[in-house]
Amino acid sequence: MSIDQPLMQLVRKLQTRAVLDRSDIAAILELPFNERTYEAPGYLVREGATRLEQCSFIRSGFAFRQKLTVDGNRQIIGICLPGDFVDLQHLFLDQADHSVQVLTRVETADVDRTALQRLAEHRPNLNRALWIDTLIEASIHREWILNVGRRDARQRIANLLCEFALRMKQAGIDQEAGCELPMTQEQLGDAVGLTSVHVNRTLKTLEKDGLVRREKRYLTIADWEKIRALGAFSALYLHFDQGGPEGV
Amino acid sequence: MSIDQPLMQLVRKLQTRAVLDRSDIAAILELPFNERTYEAPGYLVREGATRLEQCSFIRSGFAFRQKLTVDGNRQIIGICLPGDFVDLQHLFLDQADHSVQVLTRVETADVDRTALQRLAEHRPNLNRALWIDTLIEASIHREWILNVGRRDARQRIANLLCEFALRMKQAGIDQEAGCELPMTQEQLGDAVGLTSVHVNRTLKTLEKDGLVRREKRYLTIADWEKIRALGAFSALYLHFDQGGPEGV
DNA sequence: CGAAAACTTGACCCAACTCAACGAACGTGG
DNA sequence: CCACGTTCGTTGAGTTGGGTCAAGTTTTCG
Hints:
homodimer; alpha+beta; Jelly Rolls; Arc Repressor Mutant, subunit A; 2 domains; four-stranded antiparallel β-sheet; three-stranded antiparallel β-sheet; 8 helices; 19% strand; globular; DNA-binding
């Protein structure tokens, strides 16, 4: 049950979603699983795939969900941080409706989906935790629709950065001076529905205004309050408050 | 157990999501519930609301999910048809992260959320059905992010119309000649991230090209194949195939 | 060290927005 | 059932945020 026991990471994640008792935790730690490593531009999930027998969560590294237009345009649908499930939707859905691609080298732990289904079936707390995780992801999707549909370039990027920083913090992997962003400007653009060229120009203005700082490949948030205001970011949609007993 | 028993409608909906046995159905029909009616520009759910003790599904009428920008711009996040749950997310989430507003007069049946939780807890089939419903909604959200983020006006509207028509058909409420659309052009615009003015102009071109027909207040799809191709619509993301036994 | 990937910058363009005025349809009350 | 206010749809003219294209420059990494 050491800290580098991958399933312990899963336990900790689910504990942010619902209260688990001793036996719940024991049941998780007994799950059969295998580990896997994916390198940089690889796919964890491919849209259309059908023999989905496992649900994976990320032990380390970053990934993103994406869908493509017929004419090849990419839209990033969400970002997966360490500790996140990559494809919890495959607990019950039989076909992948989007792809998940590696951002930085990713290590996963893959749990058999029927084993996970049994767990949800027999353990209300785990059922609740997994379900809440699903619901929060849907909530994040909703915010993204708003972001891409109704905000201008500066606001979109600001909002994305806020979400990223806060989720990093909740996952306990933020640096002291803000947080790093492991995405290229093109990927950033694909996440907010803009061109890499325009992302570049927009980031410049954000830097000029003292909202972010950029060195080499990394971007850090310089003025949290200003960027929060610009992106009109409200953490409500991340539902951080859901961990309490019986959801109070 | 007549057809106008509201809970029978719920049974039928859930049967499109998973296989239910006799006792599952009986358990649903025993749920306590009350009925409510909402008039035209009213709210079924308000963003930020906290005492969420019921989950409602729509017996008749249409509603839409929405979020607002700080500067008052609206983005419609999804559309609720008769038979759809309005706020299944409140089965486990304790705060509303978006609003749901009436499109046409809506009649709902409201089920106590703890009763529904108990059902999910004790009945794997129902747990599965409800969960799949949640997952499909998340999948629709993803498609909307793509739609709004990476397609042009004609494609966006075409895609939305396809989704609407197909879901209407699955819900069994399509007219013979395509289907009516109970949304104003402004609402259409808010759903696809455009202005009502631009929606108007774009609809004109779609009509000129013979893809849709418009009479009075109603819009019907004239050429399904053309509009499907234009919107690059693929029904994959609606996961209609999920109803089978054990998801095969 | 060299090639590939990522980032910058400028010039030009266009899809969609804004503003504004007007017409059509709806529905409500008398 | 008509009158009239309100909402919805339509159209034009002018503007703009962000896209495109293209040519560098810097960074990364094998």
